[in-house]
Amino acid sequence: TTGPSSDPDSPSTLESVQDNPDGGCHIYRNGYYGSSIDVVEGILEVNIIQMTSIQMTESQAENSLVDFVVTCQGSLPTDVCTVVSDPTCQVSKSVVCDPIVVTDECLLTIRRAFEEPGTYCINITLGDDTSQALASALISVNGGEST
Q1: How many Cβ atoms from other residues are within 10 Å of residue 16's Cβ?
Q2: Over the stretch 109-122, which tens digit does the pLDDT of each residue have?
Q3: pTM
Q4: Among the four given CATH numbers 2.60.40.150, 2.30.30.30, 1.20.1600.10, 3.40.50.2000, the one describing domain 43-141
């Protein structure tokens, strides 16, 4: 393959040279190519603005439920993933991903269950077809109460 044409007035030209195994002839192909770049805004920022423990009766207290109120800037997300890890954020305990529909303003509530009391690292990732953004927090779950 040879380089682009040296004519500064013409669009980029690509010449291709291939060997013909039958007779040692060469095939020359000339043509033009073009490309375009689409710039998308993407999800720029995610913030966990509130964490609220859901009070349940003793008969329902198998798991502690926590609601996370999340906001974002930029384009609207189409899915949310929550990773629950140990307090150092190194060992993942569970991963939950769900599709979401955000219509106007990026403000959503995500409810997650915790099987036992303890301190956890929470990573919430919002994504769409072209971008992802992440927010992290430490949460202490105490048998139905969180801080």
Answers
A1: 11
A2: 999 988 888 999 99
A3: 0.67
A4: 2.60.40.150
